[in-house]
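Recap from last week: sequence in, structure out.
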Amino acid sequence: MIKQRRKLDICLNCRLPLKLEDNFCPQCGQENHDQNVSLFVFLNDFITNYLSFDSSLYRTIPAFLLKPGKITKAFNEGKRRRYLHPIRLYLILSLFYFFAISAVVPPNLFDQLMSAGLWDMTIEDNDRVKMKLDEIPEKDRQELDSMLNIVGSYSLGSLGGKNAQDTLGTVKLKWRDIKMMAQDTDISDSSFYRAMETTDFNFNLPYLGITQQRKFIGNSNLYVSNSARNLPIMMFVLLPFFALLLKILYIRHKKFYVEHLIHSLVLHAFAYLIYGLGISIMAFHFADFGYTIFICFLVVTTYAYISLLNLHGQGWFKTLVKFNILGLVYLNLLIIGVLMELYISLLVF
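Predicted structure tokens:
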């Protein structure tokens, strides 16, 4: 795609007069292109130069979908105008994938999981809870009493002389109760911490103080949204590690690291496409979640295996062994990456 330029008759950087055929300033090298335009023109240029497709799109679609490894091989052989650039392919399909996730996953997903009973607990003569209650001073019990009244639960100060632990045996703690406590500015952090100690909710992570825990519990929906926005960055950071694994597995093939990086881009782009379509299908309740994910996984892994066969020309068994090693190591990296992304998002939340 030839870039559309709005040429000037003078270089805005060094003031050298320019000719009509000058795409760049002969003296300073600055591009001969007027950037001072309206927002509409700017967006039009962006779509034209970066998101528009030429005839290469029609060659890319069948090669990308039906011939695993073909685009990577052509690009690494220097045939870089025949198909869409792998980076462009990756960016477009990653946008589609993460847009599908954001459209399908409800913003209150975390609250739904917790309210569905993931961590809800009925306390049945729990020794740990009894010990915690014994340690709470009378003054703090009064504050806990007001907290529990706020959320509509049983209060420690209204037991009518009964044993507190015996009465608490019938209390069922709810996530929404803890969430309301976290949002109540009249409840101090120390009192909230003592209330958390009598529940089964545990967010005690390194460098995560009670203030940050309370902020997370009170605004868990916002945290889920922030974490979802950070996922594309995490996946992009993992790309070089995936390429490094390919480099190590095929170190005797004397290929450059960049060639494996290009292969990684294409494989991830295909995975984004398939999983994005699967998520979109599930959004309209056309298929079961487990069945759809299994089919997507089967398609993506088969595609990746065939692409390794086509690119490196090794036997099916040797390729299968390397493919399993690649998948196992990368799965662990992916799990670590997701956990780190969630943890970092929690720290900076």
